Amino acid sequence: MTNAILAEVTDDGAGRLSYRGARYLLIRPETLAALQHAVEAALGAGAGECLAAGGRAGGGRAIGSFPGVGRERVEALLAMGSKLGWGRFALERFAPGELVVTVTGSPFAEAYGASRAPVCHLTRGVLEALGSAVLAGRPRVTETACVAMGTPVCRFESRAA
Q1: How far apart are CA 161 and CA 139, in angstroms?
Q2: Does residue 109 sit in helix, strand or coil?
Q3: What is the pLDDT of residue 148?
Q4: Integer Cα distance of 29 and 11 in angstroms
Q5: Residue 146 structural domain
Q6: Beta strand pairing status for 98-104 and 22-24?
Q7: Residues in Cβ contact with 140 at an 8 Å cutoff, skipping those fewer than 6 apart
Q8: How would you list the strands of the sheet with 17-19, edge to edge?
Q9: Smallest Cα–Cα separation from 120: which of 159, 93, 81, 72?
Q10: In the prediction, which pLDDT does 1 show?
Q11: Alpha-carbon distance 118 to 58, whole Å?
């Protein structure tokens, strides 16, 4: 299977990879999991919000580059997430005031290891940025299932506040 995004990644020869003018990097999920564990050890429960903030920042920039509105933007972001290796994103529900997305094969959950709580905070942050773009108000995203907790998929529910 050919990945269209990878075919469009350019290397400037000076250590920078770009996709459609935006800089990207390849990083092992284990690196991010180790960072997440260290931030959790230092900050406790607040660590998840720090990681989600990173997801919101990157997700917001990506969403701003997509044409269209509503469902078109949702589908564009989910397709991009899948092609970038963030797992297989699927739209479970999109309705006024509600967005539900599942992710199979989340690299964050798989690299993190077993957990009693959801761990895909970067993905949650990206989906918060998406929810803000396509839902009214300031939607809150909750990861209601996580592979790190033993479920088959990670599930994110976004509801308008």
Answers
A1: 5
A2: helix
A3: 98
A4: 21
A5: 29-159
A6: unpaired
A7: 128, 158, 159, 161
A8: 9-11, 17-19, 22-24
A9: 81
A10: 62
A11: 20
| Residue corresponding to tokens 């539900």 | 100
Any idea of the CA torsion for 63, 106, 83, 11, to the nearest 10 degrees?
90
Handedness of CA 96, 102, 107, 110 (dihedral sign): positive
1 domain residue, yes or no? no
Phi, psi of 13 (to 5 degrees): 80, -5
Q: What's the pLDDT at 160?
A: 83
83, part of any domain: yes
pLDDT of residue 146: 98
| pLDDT, tens only, 114-161 | 999 999 999 999 999 999 999 988 889 999 999 999 999 999 999 987
Which of 35, 58, 42 is CA-nearest to residue 119?
Answer: 35
Q: How far is Cα 73 from Cα 42, in angstroms, rounded to an integer?
A: 36
Q: Which amino acid is at 44?
A: G
CATH number at residue 106: 3.30.1380.20
In a domain, 63, yes or no: yes
How far does the chain reach from its first CA to its final CA, in angstroms? 40
Total residue length of the chain: 161
Ranges of residues in the chain with a pLDDT under 50 are none
What does the longest C-alpha to C-alpha distance in the chain come to?
Answer: 46
